[in-house]
Amino acid sequence: MSEASPPPSSDSSGAHGPTAPVPPAPAPAPAGQVLEDPASPHSRSPQASKPVSTWAPLVASPSFRMLWGVTLAANICMWMNDVAAAWMMTSLTTSPVLVALVQTASTLPVFLLGLPSGALADILDRRRYVIATQFLVATVAVLLCITVAMGWMTAPLLLALTFANGIGTAMRWPVFSALLPEMVSKAHLPSAMALNGVAMNASRIVGPLVAGAIIASLGSAWVFVLNAVLSILSGIVLVRWKRHQPENPLGRERLHSAMRVGLQFVKESPRMRAVIARTVAFFFMSTAIMALLPLTAQRFEGHFVGGAGTFTILLASMGAGAIISAMFLPRLRQALGEKLVIVGTCVMALATVGVALVPHLLLAIACMMVAGMALISTANSLGVKAQMALPNWVRARGMAAYQMSIMGGTAIGAALWGKVASLTSVPTSLMAAAVTGVLVMLLVQRLVTERQALEDLSPSKAWIPPTHDRPEGGRVVVQIEYRINPAKARRFRTLMQESRRSRLRQGAVGWSLLHSMEQPERYVEQIVDESWTEHLRRFERVTAADVALRERKLAFHVHDTPPTVRRYFETD
Hints:
This protein is mainly alpha-helical. It has helices at residues 56-60, 62-92, 96-123, 126-149, 155-183, 189-217, 220-240, 255-268, 270-291, 293-298, 308-327, 329-336, 340-357, 361-388, 395-423, 426-447, 489-506, 532-540, 544-554, and strands at 2-3, 476-483, 510-515, 522-529, 564-569. The radius of gyration is 26 Å and the shape is globular.
């Protein structure tokens, strides 16, 4: 390898970890030196002490109002499509597995394509990207309409087209989530996410009601026609939206590299791992009530309404419960705090058992309302945790991973509980889902912890990246030399594991800690970057939490001068 750096310099970064002495802010680096970790005066507050009104973001941000309206229309289209597809499937087949697989076909694309779509949303112009996905959904709706109108629809073809519609949803959701923090303040973020839940669940009412009325009066084909019209109109609204996309002087990330970094960030973030594990556990259980709802509705034939009307009423009841709960979410978050997820899981399980056992439609409606309350409360809590665990540069990829966990849990759960229903009965499957869901969530809560303090992920730009006149191709290796008191070596090594996670979250492809055999006090942190450009990108991704860890590492350094930094290009 050949040395390729300016004179030796100090470099370290990290996140909150085990307690260690924190010195005063280090003195400025000598002239000619480059510190790899910038500082930031900003701090992150997880939420204000006083609850913020659920409606505040709509008043404060015109851009959010626009995006919220588009989200509402998109969700109405999604629910109309799902209702029409689910009810049509019951007329095409009597198999509980195929009926449940409609839910799987709708959600599985988000699991399969979530990460690529999240990476694209992070590296492309988000406005243009969301417009393209909007018109993709409209195209699929037109194809569904034509297929039904021509009488060509079969159960396998319906699943295939539902899957295609899910592809459009998979490409659209991450960019919606990534745009949200741009439009509202940090204090308004939980309320904005709750309003997105309101949009989802208002559409859960409006979509099925409209779809049911159209199916009864005009036929399923017209549901898909209306979906296409609403999708096109939403696309036109987005076309008129003005948003400035900042240019990155380093250019766009390559897709495969962006996907690798996104996965790496989630893997090395304890908070994101905990959120994803809880999300999979919750939706694995909660999907049973939705996946089997068309078959559940058939139990109440002759109770006031019948056919698609019963299914529509039960679905709308769940949406109504969610909207009611959204109004009280700020107070629920303040009252229950970290217990909200486990409480919501238990309430969802009780509602699922109720739907399985109650003998009358009115009682089933009440249970569905309770299920809706539990669903939005738990999902909102998990979604806010995910947003708070992500810096902006990787937000779409991180939220894609979160949404993949939702859809992965939903798809697997729908298929499993549909199979259980075909082997036993629908009520038995619902009760099995409820009991299993609570047990799995308790196990996840115990095994996957999130005890790490909430990190300050605000960007830091105080340090200038290194420059090089003739950067070579291939990987870049950075070595940072520390002098550590051997009596404190164990604590230093523990802290350096936090440094490893920090470097890998920023995009490094390798990390190691070397210990000198001849000089026990000498440690060398080695970081490997994919290329010189990717090395420079790490400077753009440094947060205040990384700076805080740098200072904690420097507290262990006992030499008179800062840790020495050397950079190398790998050579063949």
